[in-house]
Amino acid sequence: MILTIETQEQYTRALAEIEVFLAKGSSNMTEVDLAELQRLSLLVERYEEEHYPMPVEPATLPEMIRLRMFQENLRQRDTAKMLGITETRLSEVLTGKRKVNMDLAKRLHEQLHIRAEYILKTA
Asked: From the UniProt record, which GO molecular function terms apply (predicted)?
């Protein structure tokens, strides 16, 4: 039984044990199996957070807008239309030639779901 995950070897063993449980399927697991799967998953999650951290969010607002466009599979034309601005204005914002005003900041928050705190910090 794995109690902690502190090494790559323990991590690999825990992943292998999780795979065994998943291969059984949840409908074929006992309550004990489900509890063990949850325990192992939490241990793996803690190890991954420490050793494989997710990338930090983009440093600039234009980078964040590009990330959201990528995530939503939006072209620049579609994004400009969604935000109620011209493609030229969006291009200027993305290249750093134009700053974001309050109206556009609200639209970025509402339409692209960029946190208001992030917009204020990076605008």
From this structure: DNA binding
- pLDDT 10s digits, 64-110: 999 999 999 999 999 999 999 999 999 999 999 999 999 999 999 99
Q: Are 93 and 104 in contact (CB under 8 A)?
A: yes
Q: What are phi and psi of 10, to 5 degrees?
A: -65, -40
Q: What integer best gives the mean pLDDT of the chain? A: 94
> Does 1 reside within a domain?
no
- Cα–Cα distance, 100 to 90 (Å, whole number): 10
User: How many domains does the structure of the chain reveal?
Assistant: 2
**For range 56-65, the mean pLDDT:** 92
Could you tell me the residue range of the domain that residue 42 belongs to?
A: 8-51
* Rounded Cα distance, 84 and 92, in Å: 15
**Same-domain status, 32 and 69:** no
